[in-house]
Amino acid sequence: xxxxxxxxxxxxxxxxxxxxxxxxxxxxxxxxxxxxxxxxxxxxxxxxxxxxxxxxxxxxxxxxxxxxxxxxxxxxxxxxxxxxxxxxxxxxxxxxxxxxxxxxxxxxxxxxxxxxxxxxxxxxxxxxxxxxxxxxxxxxxxxxxxxx
Length: 148
Description:
Layout: H1 3-18, E1 24-28, E2 41-44, E3 55-59, H2 68-86, H3 89-98, H4 109-121, E4 126-127, E5 133-134
Parallel strand pairs: 1-3
Antiparallel strand pairs: 2-3, 4-5
Helix pairs in contact: 1-2, 2-4
């Protein structure tokens, strides 16, 4: 499955899980974070591009060459950020709790995005040998040295 199809599928699944559409656009392009070994995706919320939705996910070109399990992990994590940005915090906490997942506080945005992804897809994100999100292998939860 191509990355565009995977992103579309995961967005539809997330929308079904939370019961509402996400105001979201996607693209593949440059971003300074992508020059780092772990830089594969970023989510924008407050931006000035009228063609974008309330949120915009930009993926790195190098993600196109990554294993599908890494592509999926990155997409799920970024969608976790989008859901966190577009949903009311208390309602989102209650929704996740009903699905058996306790969300960290909003100030722990990276851990929270992972937990939201777990609530949507019913399985935790893992961190592979390069400490990048994966759906198949690696450690859980997010390694502490990566920040919260």
